[in-house]
């Protein structure tokens, strides 16, 4: 079973359990067969690739089914075992092989999915995902002989396992100036996700007092959902910072490719401020470099990049789009408002852990608390991302566009963006869920709230 709705703009993601599953292990087998056929070389040479998975309970059986399907076509598979998504990107770049990882990122426990990359952690294209969808669904409709595929897999292709966690941690350490930082107390909220696996190896050797919340890997997410974009999922880390007098907290999503920072007062640091802060550091290292942002990154970021002699280019929201533009422009760094951060020296891929290390480096080399350190980078008041469930996303955006006609410059780079004098409204469809996402920012809170309420009134009417 491979229902249409599991195929998203950037990856595969769908429900695997309960009364209404959207894909199953038979579908995963079909995906493995289709993937191996699609990735064969021009002369029919079988693909070699690396596969990882997060801690979701369905991960072992779904990844095993995919591997069997791929091996039945002669694929040579390297099993990396439990990996954060950014660790999988590292392995792909390190080995210069295509990679996949079974993860549903920040989605609830009943979901699982697949993220893909080409050799060198390069992003796959939308055309690749469309072809994979077509071929896999066609195979799935034929009701594959799963027993025969499993038997063929035992004698076709190859499979070996290798742990890359130590190499991943060493690579991250080499990319950030961490020597000589003052001792910091940092709360790490792993949310029972993959940061519980990677953080000890990455943060343990550093001059840090690390206090880990929910570090046990548990795909049922017993403490809170693994989505730091939702404020309620940050509350535990906020309380822990204040209660223990920590310098900051780092909060990761389920597959640990995103990282949110909380300052010493318990306030959430705007990801756009983190983007500006890291961009400034990277531009000091390489003057004149290019920084990639997306359509909902704060307007403060291009201002700060320009002040530091850099160039900004804008991407659509989504890791495949940002990665492709990063590579095209040879950009040194990129940041999204969703707390995805991309680094040229990390194969142009996104990594929450490396972003966290940059924050620790900047704070550890400063005598200021984090709240003061980031103050100069937060020049706008933001609404945060507000989701609305609407029947016709395009029609809703058109209603808003008409209401704002003549009140600013509009573009449709990614959904609808209206640029006003000191304010901006962005309304765009989600890449992964049937939602319309609103982001508003302005120079003052009253203007932001007025614009936010106006747009929500139009969208939810």
Automatic annotation (TrEMBL):
Which InterPro entries does the record associate with it? A-D-PHexomutase_a/b/a-I, A-D-PHexomutase_a/b/a-I/II/III, A-D-PHexomutase_a/b/a-II, A-D-PHexomutase_a/b/a-III, A-D-PHexomutase_C, A-D-PHexomutase_C_sf, Alpha-D-phosphohexomutase_SF
> What is the superkingdom listed in this entry's lineage?
Bacteria
> Which keywords, in A-to-Z order, does the entry hold?
Isomerase, Magnesium, Metal-binding, Phosphoprotein
Specify the Alpha-D-phosphohexomutase alpha/beta/alpha domain's residue ranges. Answer: 5-139, 167-266, 271-375
GO molecular function (one): intramolecular phosphotransferase activity
GO BP, sorted A to Z: carbohydrate metabolic process
Q: Which cofactor does it need?
A: Mg(2+)
Which residues does the UniProt record annotate as the domain Alpha-D-phosphohexomutase C-terminal? Answer: 385-456
Family membership: Belongs to the phosphohexose mutase family.
What PANTHER family does this protein's entry cite? PHOSPHOMANNOMUTASE
Q: What is this protein called?
A: Phosphomannomutase/phosphoglucomutase
Q: What species is given as this protein's source?
A: Raineyella fluvialis
Q: Which gene encodes it?
A: manB
């Amino acid at each position: 079973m491979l229902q249409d709705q599991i195929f998203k703009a950037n990856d595969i993601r769908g429900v695997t359990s309960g009364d209404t599953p959207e894909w199953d292990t038979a579908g995963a087998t079909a995906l493995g067969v289709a993937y191996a056929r699609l990735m064969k070389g021009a002369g029919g040479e079988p693909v070699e690739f690396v596969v990882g998975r997060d801690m979701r309970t369905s991960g072992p059986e779904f990844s095993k089914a995919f591997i069997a399907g791929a091996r039945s076509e002669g694929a040579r598979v390297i099993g990396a075992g439990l990996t954060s998504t950014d660790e999988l990107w590292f392995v792909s770049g390190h080995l210069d092989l295509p990679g996949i990882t079974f993860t549903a990122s920040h989605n609830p426990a009943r979901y699982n999915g697949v993220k893909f990359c080409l050799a060198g952690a390069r992003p796959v294209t939308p055309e690749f995902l469309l072809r994979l969808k077509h071929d896999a669904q066609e195979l799935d409709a034929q009701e594959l002989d799963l027993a025969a595929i499993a038997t063929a897999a035992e004698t076709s292709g190859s499979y070996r396992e290798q742990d890359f966690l130590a190499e991943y941690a060493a690579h991250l350490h080499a990319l950030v100036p961490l020597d000589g930082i003052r001792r910091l107390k940092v709360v790490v909220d792993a949310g029972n996700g993959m940061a519980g696996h990677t953080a000890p190896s990455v943060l343990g050797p550093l001059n840090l007092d690390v206090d880990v919340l929910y570090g046990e890997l548990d795909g049922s997410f017993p403490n809170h959902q693994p989505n730091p974009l939702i404020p309620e999922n940050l509350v535990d880390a906020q309380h822990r910072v204040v209660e223990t007098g920590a310098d900051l907290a780092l909060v990761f999503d389920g597959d640990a490719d995103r990282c949110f920072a909380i300052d010493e007062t318990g306030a959430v640091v705007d990801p756009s401020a983190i983007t500006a802060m890291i961009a400034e550091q990277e531009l000091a290292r390489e003057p004149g470099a290019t920084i990639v942002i997306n359509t909902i990154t704060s307007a403060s970021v291009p201002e700060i990049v320009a002040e530091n002699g850099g160039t900004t280019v804008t991407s659509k929201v989504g890791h495949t789009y940002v990665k492709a533009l990063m590579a095209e422009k040879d950009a040194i760094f990129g940041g999204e408002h969703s707390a995805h951060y991309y680094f040229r020296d990390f194969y142009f891929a996104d990594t929450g852990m490396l972003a966290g290390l940059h924050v620790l480096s900047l704070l550890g080399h400063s005598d200021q608390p984090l709240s003061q350190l980031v103050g100069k980078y937060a020049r706008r008041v933001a609404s945060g991302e507000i989701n609305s469930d609407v029947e016709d996303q395009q029609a809703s955006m058109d209603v808003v566009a008409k209401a704002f006609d003549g009140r600013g410059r509009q573009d449709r780079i990614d959904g609808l963006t209206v640029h006003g004098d000191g304010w901006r409204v962005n309304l765009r469809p989600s890449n992964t869920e049937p939602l319309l996402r609103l982001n508003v920012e302005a120079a003052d809170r009253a203007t932001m709230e007025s614009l936010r309420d106006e747009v929500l009134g139009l969208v939810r009417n």
